[in-house]
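In the design runs reported in the main text, the only information available to the sequence generator was the tokenized backbone. The following block is the verbatim input for one such run; it is reproduced so that readers can re-run the procedure and compare outputs position by position.
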């Protein structure tokens, strides 16, 4: 996974410091949004020829690594109160 994460670059001078695919201005956020609306990694690569499938996988790996350390807050169905889930629940 480290090889994939080497494809991610963060520089305050590029896209205001958002993580991007190295050598591009394409953000991890943008790739994740494209996947969220149903695009396949092949479709993303077709739309952005500078990207490879490994770049799309790197964006997913980065997002997963980032979320692994996050606390999760969610609202139970029909409940007004937010609950915090511990990792591993």
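Verbatim output:
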């Amino acid at each position: 996974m480290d090889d994939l994460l080497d494809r991610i670059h963060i520089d305050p001078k590029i896209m205001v410091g958002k993580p991007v695919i190295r050598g591009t201005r394409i953000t991890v956020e943008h790739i994740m949004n494209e996947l969220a609306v149903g695009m396949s990694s092949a479709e993303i690569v077709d739309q952005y020829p500078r990207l490879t499938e490994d770049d799309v996988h790197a964006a997913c790996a980065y997002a997963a690594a980032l979320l692994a350390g996050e606390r999760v807050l969610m609202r139970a169905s029909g409940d007004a109160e937010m609950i915090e889930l511990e990792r591993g629940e």
